[in-house]
UniProtKB/TrEMBL annotation:
CDD domains from the UniProt entry: ParB_N_Srx_like (cd16390)
Organism in which the protein naturally occurs: Mesorhizobium intechi
Organism lineage string: Bacteria, Pseudomonadati, Pseudomonadota, Alphaproteobacteria, Hyphomicrobiales
Protein name stated in the entry: Chromosome partitioning protein ParB
Superkingdom, natural source: Bacteria
Gene3D superfamilies from the UniProt entry: Conserved hypothetical protein from pyrococcus furiosus pfu- 392566-001, ParB domain (3.90.1530.10), DNA helicase RuvA subunit, C-terminal domain (1.10.8.10)
Amino acid sequence: MIDPREPIVTPVPVEELRPTQITVGMREVALKRQMIREQDAKKKTGAFLGKHVVPVVLGPKNRNYVTDHHHLARALLEEGVKDVLVTVISDLSALDKDTFLFVLDNRGWMHPFDESGRRRDYSAIPKTIGELIDDPYRSIAGELRRMGGFAKDTTPFSEFIWADFLRRRIDRNAVAKNFDKAMKQAFSLAKGKDADYLPGWCGPTLD
């Protein structure tokens, strides 16, 4: 087991990273790509990457399974950045594949849900970062947090939990037709009592 007090940071090819989820919000990826381009223009890409280390779990065949920052990894891939720094939070490389995936799931290091919010078999998780598919509600959730709709929270995959809440209340066609209008609806929903069970909820209180 890796000692979390002594992180070891290692460069790994982005294209070799393994996802632990099925989707990303492509609008979120676009924002990360813009950040990378701005840093590159200032010749500070190295400093940028040094501040954005990707946590991974070592799995069978010593493959690096990403547990966070999927959007950054996808953005780096699309921007042609070859390597990214990773830190191993747990070494489970001795496990067989089925046991490994089961442990990932039960430790909250996996989110096997598709763009419709349906739980899928482990086999549905892409083998590469480039195969992650778009969930527009994940983009809404990310933008909503930046707007102050809810607070950043340590709950695993908290923004996916918000995405699923919004998916059930905002029509997908409405999101595609007018993202800004959908965001206004999302913000209103986020401040309502129906959302008070969600991680990071910061709606109005009587205190």
